[in-house]
UniProtKB/TrEMBL annotation:
PROSITE patterns: 4FE4S_FER_1 (PS00198), 4FE4S_FER_2 (PS51379)
The UniProt record lists the keyword Metal-binding: yes
Assigned keywords, A-Z: Iron, Iron-sulfur, Metal-binding
GO MF, one annotated term: metal ion binding
UniProt lineage: Bacteria, Pseudomonadati, Pseudomonadota, Gammaproteobacteria, Pseudomonadales
Protein name: Ferredoxin-like protein
Length: 92
């Protein structure tokens, strides 16, 4: 039972102070969650605090490997629409 922070993390430090089990620490390239300390906030909060404050979609993975904040969940922009907009911008 542990969450994971992946390389899309921008090292904003937002998650560090909200982790009730102090499981998050700086790594060499991005923050890391200690699998031994992480409780996924079970018993403390209804939702994982790191994921609730993280400003980057897909930066935190749940124990099953799915993103805590999937694409479009924070921006409200469906991934297909974002990809279409990016193609239009790059075509200019």
């Amino acid at each position: 039972m542990a969450l994971q922070i992946v390389e899309s993390c921008v090292n904003c430090w937002a998650c560090v102070d909200v982790c009730p089990s102090e499981a998050i620490s700086p790594g060499t390239a991005y923050f890391r969650i200690s699998a031994h300390k992480c409780t996924e906030c079970d018993g403390d909060y209804a939702e994982q605090q790191c994921a609730s404050i993280c400003p980057i979609e897909g930066a935190i993975l749940l124990a099953d490997g799915s993103p805590a904040n999937p694409a479009g969940s924070l921006t409200g922009i469906p991934p297909e629409r974002l990809a279409e907009a990016m193609r239009a911008i790059q075509a200019r």
